[in-house]
């Protein structure tokens, strides 16, 4: 009886947590099909906001820059962060501790401090590099704050590798490049993929840093939605958020299915 009660409490607690997390998302999805612009009342089922979404040039332009910046910054940050993690993992003692603490700072630092710091750097650099605020500054900013997350995602996988795996490969005649490409990188692939996904998500989600480093003619969804907040969020944003949520959900299901198949084959 006691075990059944404990089991029921655990399941109820888990259900309550997921209900608390996903109720706002389900509410948003439901009201993306609401015929009224107001989220205060239900006026009937409609798909017109999905049609209006693709007619809204400002939202489509913001979505284009959001996806483009997220893809480019996540790929570049993953490459830089992976090699940085490999280098840090090879270090020992005080130097490794210092570098790890330096890597933690941008993560623990408030976004507004990072945004203002990057904006000040670009203003200073504009004097002798002719660097104007726009796509380039926004991309550099996203790469900068994504790199620490990639490093933290890759490092645990590197620590799981046998300590002498590199030396063993070199003793068997492998070159350093071959060892890196054929032995190290395949072993840490899950960490690299996780780091890239985190970087991609952080880039799409960012507002504060983007607000301070974007220039005329370049915007992303977070900035665009913030500009709408004073006048009221348009129902097209609910439709766009629903599509983004469903896309992420489908991708997660595909990835998990592939991982399940690989585990089944390995076993």
Q: Quick summary of this structure?
A:
The chain has a domain of 177 residues: MetI-like fold (Orthogonal Bundle), CATH 1.10.3720. The protein is built from 12 helices and no strands. Keywords: Cell membrane, Membrane, Transmembrane, Transmembrane helix, Transport.
Write structural notes for this entry.
It contains 12 helices and no strands. With 267 residues, it is mainly alpha-helical. The protein has a domain at 57-233: MetI-like (MetI-like fold, Orthogonal Bundle). The relative contact order is 0.13. It is found in: Cell membrane. Residues 63-255 form the ABC transmembrane type-1 domain. Belongs to the binding-protein-dependent transport system permease family. CysTW subfamily. It is a multi-pass membrane protein.
